[in-house]
Amino acid sequence: MPEVRILKERERQILRKGSGDQDMACEQKSLAGSVSQRACVFCGSRVVLYPIADALHLVHGPVGCAAYTWDIRGSLSSGAQLHRLSFSTDIQEKEVIFGGGEKLYAALSELIDAYHPKAAFVYSTCIVGLIGDDVNAICKRVAREKEIPVLPVHSEGFKGTKKDGYQAACDALARLVGTRSPEGISPFSINILGDFNLAGEIWMIRKYYEDMGIQVVATVTGDGRVDDICKSHGARLNVVQCSGSMTKLAEHMKQRYGIPYIKVSYFGVEDMADALYKVAEHFPENPKILTRAKDIVRQEVQALMPELKRYAQALQGKKAAIYVGGSFKAFSLVRALRLLGMKTVLAGSQTGNKSDYEQLKELCDEGTIIIDDANPLELSKFVKEKDVDLLIGGVKERPIAYKLGLGFCDHNHERKEALAGFTGMLNFAREVYSSVMSPVWRFAPRRGGEYRSSLSIGREDHGQRISEPFCCHS
Amino acid sequence: MASVSQSHFVATRNACKLCAPLGAALVFKGIERGMPLLHGSQGCSTYIRRYLISHFREPVDIASSNFSEESAVFGGAKNLAMALRNVTAQYRPALIGIATTCLSETIGEDVPGMIRQVAEGALEGNPVLVHVSTPSYSGSHAEGFTAAIKTVVERLAGERSFASSARQVNIFPGICSPADLRHLKEIVADFGLTGVILPDYSETLDGPAWSDYKELPPGGTPIADIGSMGGSMSSVTLGRIVASEPEKVAGEFLSARFHVSHHAIGLPIGIKETDELMRTFERVSGSVLPEKYRHERGRLIDAMVDGHKYIFEKKAIVYGEEDLVLGMAVFLSEIGMIPVLCASGGKSGNLHRLIDEMIPELKGKIEVADGTDFAGIDEMAERFQPDMVIGNSKGSRIADRLKIPLVRVGFPIHDRIGAQRILHYGYRGALELYDRIVNALLEVKQARAGLGYSYL
Fold this sequence. Notes:
Distance between the termini of chain A: 32 Å
Helix content of chain B: 40-55%
Shape of chain A: globular
CATH superfamily of the largest domain in chain B: Nitrogenase molybdenum iron protein domain
Shape of chain B: globular
Oligomer: heterodimer
Strand content of chain B: 5-15%
Distance between the termini of chain B: 38 Å
Number of helices of chain A: 16
Strand order of the largest sheet of chain A: 1-12-11-10-13-14
Number of helices of chain B: 18
Mean pLDDT of chain B: 95
CATH class of the domain at 41-176 in chain A: Alpha Beta
Mean pLDDT of chain A: 93
CATH architecture of the domain at 41-176 in chain A: 3-Layer(aba) Sandwich
Radius of gyration of chain B: 22 Å
Low-confidence stretches of chain B: none
CATH topology of the largest domain in chain B: Rossmann fold
Largest sheet of chain A: 6 strands, mixed
Radius of gyration of chain A: 24 Å
Largest interface: A-B, 83 and 74 residues
CATH class of the largest domain in chain B: Alpha Beta
Number of strands of chain A: 16
Strand content of chain A: 5-15%
CATH architecture of the largest domain in chain B: 3-Layer(aba) Sandwich
Structural class of chain A: alpha/beta
């Protein structure tokens, strides 16, 4: 195919480590027509609040936004499953003309009666403001009538980027925090923010912390519960993963309640161990916590190393490309891949900021391409140029890899494999190994897998001349 | 008359429909070098892409004009112009299909006016710009699909006064799988006809592995062919529900404007509806049914006899787009099963009547719930004591809860591979469906018996 053209306006969002000191442009709205892999403000809010399992999540607007986010994440709950249902006011033409307030009120009231949630989140989508619905007032009224918190989430798709959606979600959460008594919470206690309990990851992490002697008060964004969030201001430390989405809430809790926070990642052996040590170091008055953390790390690492080494041997020298939502995850992945003997030659994210990309550049080898808010054509161009063996991304990136005959690892919200924690590192290695080492790539056209005719007459196929058949060489 | 079931909820719970722009995007993906562009927020494109990719497992690039607050206040003309320029520069499309979203519809964008202005500025390669109005607060993805087809035909048909063959026939296939489209093409060719199928995503959304990434996948209805639709001898529209609103259908437009005779029939699912399709092609082509299909029909009937006892009077809940539900219900009635509940998120108002008309022998035994959702279906389900559920993958939880099998058909199928290769149409499609339905029930029987028997 003809060379992919990089749109002029996008050139400053792509850099190669080692070629000039170009400043990375980022944190801007996606370019119209560029086919960004990003979603919208609503998406940002929805992903953060989605795992709060005993809350009602009502999407106010036409049906699409609720339909496309029905059970979209692999975020598990140990109890209530209300979050896995999709509720929409399903606005019709009539409401567009006369307003959707009445329908919202009726829908909210009936759903609260039917499902008895602990709280309700009402997401405003694109047209809600335009048709003049006073969502705040309706939420207030229903909250009074039903005696549960009813929180408006102002997530009109066009009002910014996914990050603004995170902000809207954090604003809603901030209104819950501090509304219940924190009595009885241990002085050695944390909240876990920004882990989404995909495939049960937060249960593993929670157990590590509990084994260290730490009380976990609220797991806000994974297996989340309204009551826990309401008393989460009683915890002594906020531990934030996916910092892009949850730092805003951590900041708020720091200012309002004086709770410090640390940023961690649970992906990869080094980062997971760090996440335990950092928490332990926060409680120096109880040195047992650090001792236990060290024990856990030692035991876990010992248990996984033999198998990990086997995978690393097979994967030595293979090349990987990473394109993920938040850049913090990219750091961990670069390190985790290194542990497997693999080299990251392309790293990008949807929502990284300047310092994220600086850090990413620092971490990667010379020549690595760093990219912000990429699109499918750019990704395909660079994975081909770098001749990678593996692409790590989400559902939207998967066909790019598969069409070109490359391995793929799903590291996004739909996945059903736990990739966090020490066990998760092993699962990750297994995932990568079982994709990269599969025999199917031998048949991929790019890897010489095309049919070779037994006849010596060359033929035209899709405009490409098939290479000389092998019988001629014998 | 079939009785009617309605949910008493104001809210939609687990929607059994999608929004209109998705249907339009699917149509534009089925046009050669066609590129969909949604005029609205970035999320609409991304969510729809994700939804389609998870079904077809192919790249699905859909552009967005990416509204900002400013565009919502002052209009999205600037964004649309920029989007068109960038899409053209990157993808070199032959056609850009612009579908509106609820946002651009609500603020009352004059998209045709904007397109005229942009076109004067001349986009590189001069792509055809088609605009379809698809507000998601009116109708579902099925309506978006139909509207996009009609808009494309209105815009392009008549551009070429002659057809590429004297035996050209237009086919509007309904929402179906790439396998169905390939089968339709085969049937048309076997009748000695030249088919123009719109949309045709049989290759664009189910193509082979590539050696090089393609900005737009090969395949799709050639624009020149759409331009010549006015010169075809006939049009065939599949889908009785779709055709029950003639003013929305491309085939009616072609009949009125270019006097192309129009045959509106059902989705060719099962024997009777496939017979109807074959008879239509016989009439259009003047050729009798090719022997190959007589054999396929014969094999289908032979199989139906082999398996009839295992499924007689078994009860199924069927859901999906209204036309699919109608087609499946008719087929089930042919093989001795009872589609006890026929449910859809669509609400054309014609499903009850057509089910009564097509399946008079089961009067009183079928309930119809249109404009419903999955929570509604779930709550009704127990009452019917169904033996199986037939529809897309979104009903899997109903099947799980009732511990009965789900036979996956239609769109979307997000939890299995091979959705794009499921054949529903023709005698061949009916045979595949039949085998899957019977075997699903046999598996249950075998598992429940716990005897490990090795013969049927």
